[in-house]
Amino acid sequence: MKPIIKQYDATDVPGDVAQWTPARLEEVYFPLTLTIGEETTPGGDLFSIMIATPEAIRAHATLGPCFFARHWLIVREYRWERIMAVIQERLAACEAETWDAMVLRLARSFHWEFEDYQECQWSDDDDERHFWSWWQRDGKQERSDLAADDWEDALDQWYRAGQPRPDESRPIASMAGHATDDGHKANTFEHWAELVAHADPAQHLTAAHHLGALGDQRAVPLLLSLLQTAPSPVVRNAAAIGLRDLGAHAAVPALLAYIRDPAHKRACQHGTAIYALTTLDARTAMVDVAQVMGDGNYECMHMAVMVFESLAGPLNLQEKTAALQLLTTWRATLPEEWQHELLDRSIARLEAVDAG
User: What are phi and psi of 21, to 5 degrees?
Assistant: First the structure.
């Protein structure tokens, strides 16, 4: 299986990035979003990488004197053709037998939109949702006594162990907002809220990730704003995941508007918004979710199945009937066996849910 660039986008660059000529090397500092898929199927997933020159890195004081540079491409001179040639060389090295194996290779160099996603499952013991990791990280240990600076790792472990959300768990939640040694509150709502309006677009992605993890409902309007207005699809995806993690039921109309947007569908940029519905009251969204499955996109169909399987409570009879009709239609028209399997799971789940 060979990875192919289906589309690319650099929203922080004026006009077409392929035609852009920076006036100074300090200007070369922007996220590049790539839609990458396999050559035999339409669409793909979003992968991003930061393009920057050493001069631009020095000019961005917010990075600090030291920082990690995973998912960055550092260029000593700006030549678009050379940048794309290097990226194509890296893609060629990521060829694999399966999509999952190929994604793991791509994720070493590019930030995958579904990286570290956690699947929502219904507990057999009670009505609480637990989160299980799709991708396990090596070498992480459970720790009972954590330093404040390790709270992110603690949250990561907390989710992966299927524990309650951080705002329901005093030992983990208490780490948020702990002052660091330099006197700054490195992980408070106020800190991340300020970064939403930061001039550096790279900070918007960081803010979106942390606002969702904090468990503070004050973040909902900020994440909605990023979902609706951020130029970068990667930032919009992070905002959708933040809304999901916060259980922001009020975000359902905005997520549905995002899913319905033809531009997002054409660019295959609506899968994350579908996934965000898995922890929300999406009972009024069944027709929209069923409609998505007709596109036949691998990731979007999987996200849609997760929404159906996370359903709880009765559905409106008209909504249920219309959604089932759509799924039955796609079952008869889509050609692939894996598509039939996902549609069968969705149909079975919808049929099992009561209609009120």
Answer: -125, 110
Q: Are residues 334 and 192 in the same domain?
A: yes
> What gap in Å lies between CA 45 and CA 35, rounded to an integer?
5
For tokens 């990730």, name the residue.
209
Helices (H), 93-219: 99-106, 151-160, 170-173, 189-196, 201-214
What DSSP character marks residue 269?
-
The reply to whether 189 and 81 lie within a common domain is no
257-262: long-range contacts, CB 8 A cutoff, minimum separation 24: 258/227, 258/228, 259/288, 259/292, 260/288
Give the CA angle between residues 178, 245, 197 to the nearest 5°: 65
* Assigned token pair, 334: 């889509």
Across the chain, mean pLDDT equals: 77
- Residue 307: give the domain boundaries: 184-352
| Percent of the chain's residues with pLDDT above 90 | 33
CA–CA separation, 302 vs 234, rounded Å?
Answer: 19
The mean pLDDT of 251-267, rounded to a whole number, is: 85
Residue 191, Cα to own-chain centre: how many angstroms? Answer: 22
Domain boundary among 112, 145, 169: 112
Question: Does one domain contain both 203 and 339?
Answer: yes
Encoded tokens for 177? 């907002």
pTM for the complete prediction?
0.56
Q: Span 64-83, mean pLDDT?
A: 85
Distance CA 213, CA 216 (A): 8
106-123 burial, b for 16+ CB within 10 Å, e for fewer?
A: bbebbbbbbeebbebeee
